[in-house]
Amino acid sequence: MNLDLEPREAQFRERLTEWLDGVELPEGLRDYGATPTGDDIPAGRAWQRALVDGGWAALSWPEPYGAGATVAEQAIFAETLARRHLPRQLSFVSMELAGPILISFGTEQQKKALLEPLRRGDEVWCQLFSEPGAGSDLAAISTKAVAADDGWRVSGQKVWTSGAHYAQYGLLLARTDSAQERHRGLSCFAVPMDRPGIEVRPILQMDGESKFNEVFLDDVAVGPDDLLGEVGGGWAVAMSILGRERRMLGSLAIGLSTSLTDLRSAAEQRGIDDVPFRRRWAELFSRVQLLRWTWFRLLSSATDSATDPRMSVLKLTSSELQQEVAGFGADTLGREFLTGADGEPWRHAFLASHGATLAGGTSEVQRNILGERVLRLPR
Fold first, then answer.
1. Catalytic (active-site) positions
2. What is the mean pLDDT of residues 113-136?
3. 311 close to 298: Cβ distance less than 8 angstroms
4. In this predicted model, what pLDDT tens digit does every residue of 151-194 receive, in sequence order?
């Protein structure tokens, strides 16, 4: 693999750096990760509009809908913003899941009505997939869409829905034919979150934030204009969404290099520079770099990265590395991790990292995918 930047990529980084040096950051903007809290929305929305106006939004979307950036350019963008502790976009679900899914499965009318408000951050999307009895086993969903004269009536419960309490639209997976096998009879809808019958209840997390929600659907009306793809074709839409989710969750580890660099500076200020610290730091930093280049190699070689089962390598390795890096920060800072103001970012990272091996499919699910679909091992 050639690790040197091509001329186009070097120019891309130059332009990005120059733009970031000159742009005025919205007040209150912080690196909130993949999902903002409700309090982050005003600054995040202003940041999304600045990215659009500067030509830095929707890099992963194909032309003419987005920038059509190369994999290398997307990596440069992610790394540069991570070093500056800035979010890549307003909402990961909106930009990396909903947008591409609308482009792939939406009608021309849906694309015309929904893509531009999404791209500019005027409308935020959420993902109505997981249920109390169907998390890792998504095919077990019980939310039903019963046929009606004007479409369907949906009833059921979703959980762990990121950003549902401020979202304007949701990607809803429901069972339109209960007589079909588990993976069949499912359909996907683009549903306005203010439809009658939708109730959202935020979940308080142990890190003090509320990014996730329970969502209750009681006889919610959906029609043919809300359908994404074909009736009964929801599993194909869902697999495309989950593939993109795993790919992008894997890319979050790109920012771990910055976290480790920050930790090294904090350790030096406290006189921590012994052999065990340096050995552990070097090990984690090396693994982050290996993951970075694996991300680049897989995305460059995949025919369709949204459906390539190898993307589970990125999700599995990234989520477990996030936990290890956060734990290393807690061990290094010691008591300050628990009580000091300087330890707050690491305290938050440590608590939030415990969900990393659950979101987008558990580590056990990722290992099953790799074993069965990549290594061709027996079930």
1. 245
2. 94
3. yes
4. 999 999 999 999 999 999 999 999 999 988 888 899 999 999 99
Amino acid at 185: G
* Residue found under tokens 């120019």: 11
Helices 71-83 and 275-301: angle between axes, nearest 10 degrees: 150
Q: Which of 350, 280, 283 is nearest to 322 (CA)?
A: 350
- Angle (CA) 246 251 252, round 5°: 100
- In order of 102, 252, 299, the CA distances from 302 in angstroms are 21, 19, 5
As a whole number of angstroms, the distance between CA 50 and CA 25 comes to 9
Give the three-class secondary structure for 205.
coil
Contact partners, residue 227, CB within 8 Å, separation at least 6: 187, 188, 189
pLDDT in tens, 19-78: 999 999 999 999 998 899 999 999 999 999 999 999 999 999 999 999 999 878 888 898
Closest alpha carbon to 306 in 245, 244, 250, 236: 244
Neighbours of 228 (CB within 10 A): 24
Its sign, for the CA torsion 238, 102, 120, 88, is positive
Query: What confidence category does residue 250 fall into, taking pLDDT thresholds of 50, 70 and 90?
Result: low
Q: Where are the alpha helices (DSSP H) in the chain?
A: 7-22, 41-54, 71-83, 92, 99-105, 108-120, 234-251, 256-269, 275-301, 311-333, 335-339, 344-353, 363-369
Residue holding tokens 């009318």?
A: 109
Q: Read out DSSP for 250-306?
A: HHGGGGHHHHHHHHHHHHHHTT---HHHHHHHHHHHHHHHHHHHHHHHHHHH-S-TT
Q: What is the pTM of this model?
A: 0.89
Residue 102 class from Cβ within 10 Å (0-12 exposed, 13-18 middle, 19+ buried)? buried
Residue 348 structure tokens? 């938050």
Cis peptide bond prior to 64, omega within 30° of 0: yes
Residues facing 188 on adjacent strands: 173, 228
